[in-house]
Amino acid sequence: MRALRILGVIIGAFSLFSFEVEAQKPNIVVILCDDLGYGDLSSYGHQKIQTPNLDALSEKGIKFTNFYAASPVCSPSRVGLMTGRSPNRAGIYDFIVGGHEPRDNNRDRVHLQAHEETIPARLKSAGYATCLSGKWHSSSLFNEPEKQPTPDHFGFDHWFATHNNAVPSHENPRNFVRNGKEVGEIEGFSCQIVVDEATNWLSQQKKEQPFYMQINFHEPHVPIASPAALVKKYLPYAKNENEAQYYANVENVDIAVGRLVKYLEDNGHDNTLIVFTSDNGPETLLRYPKAMHSYGTTGGLKGRKLWTTDGGFKVPGIMYWMGKPTYKGQTDAVVSALDLMPTFCELAGAELPKRELDGQSLVKLLQSGKLEREKPLVWAFYNALNDHVVAMRDGDWKLLARLKYDSDYLPKITNVYPGNVDSVRNAQMVDFELYNLAKDKGEWQNLVKSNPKQFRNMKKLLTKEYSALLQDSHVWIKPEIE
Known about the structure:
By secondary structure, the protein is α/β, with parallel strands linked by helices. The chain contains 13 helices and 16 strands. Strand 13 and strand 14 form a beta hairpin.
């Protein structure tokens, strides 16, 4: 009996210890905007759009001036964030098209594959409850679990999502699916609906269990719709009603973020790390007919969405850890959405995926505001609107390159499949451009000729890193010849 009592004390003490360790794990909330430009928040320099809630987060936490998305376009950016790996490794080279219509380049097959390891799955293995609310856009056949994995396969206990954009617009969307079941039309605006779903889910969770929420706003991606009162507010300051709609759209996101933060504060979730960012740079005005509201700004950076210059994938980045003393203020450390996977795993005590990661933990940065990158950031976006489809940032330096195969430049490519894989893998990098971003954030002064030593070093590094990425990039093959 005495031995049993001692054993019981030991088990009880172990259980208490386990609970205390569990309680120390931070809740984690990722808020991802869609097509929000680097200069679209007032804290990032916009002179007209008011974003007081996000500004408050940046003042209480960390504001990043060199935060990079995993890609300059939607689907690969989201997959990179969730996996901590270049989206090329997963075979997500461009935005994912929907539907069953076969395509010659196998693009209809593209999706986040079942073997990929994600943030929610890793955190779930460490005892987290997990929720996705908002845009998914990581599979071509959305909500067809017998053909392609749905968000629950990747670790989301609860998911409330759309395939791509809110339909018919941000107002009264009708294409949300909740855990596999279509919801039908919902009254209101998408960003507010997405926050409602997240907070409703959270209200039903156990207080002692840590949680991970990924809130993927549709805003300010087209088709844009904003509350009439906010549009009216901006009309005197905008060039036209379309621009006022855009300004109002961004402020509506800010209001939604404010509601979410207030809910967390009011309900005692005071150990919560909040990360706010965007999937890529702003859309180009009138690039296609529906882009009539696309008045986003890059804050002076070259290019926009779909470019490999910084306007394409340098985005706002804010981290605020409620209830924890961290570094406070602005940092110019070069960080990436790819860094979230290793960061969250370290904070949660979760094992890292047993695969090559392209990001690194930011835990030390949370205390110091500083980071020494272990390897450079590399992008290969073969359908870029600019000619230089390969880019690398290492420290203050950035190198871009065009690709040439035989005697011609490599054509624009939306997917890698047997019909073009040889040309992609054997293309040579040419026509390099080198920039010192600490002195030239607009990427205007090409230093290839004036700084030959730095160019040689950067070229050697890019050749090594890009070659390794090429060898690990997925090739999409039709089922009958797999």
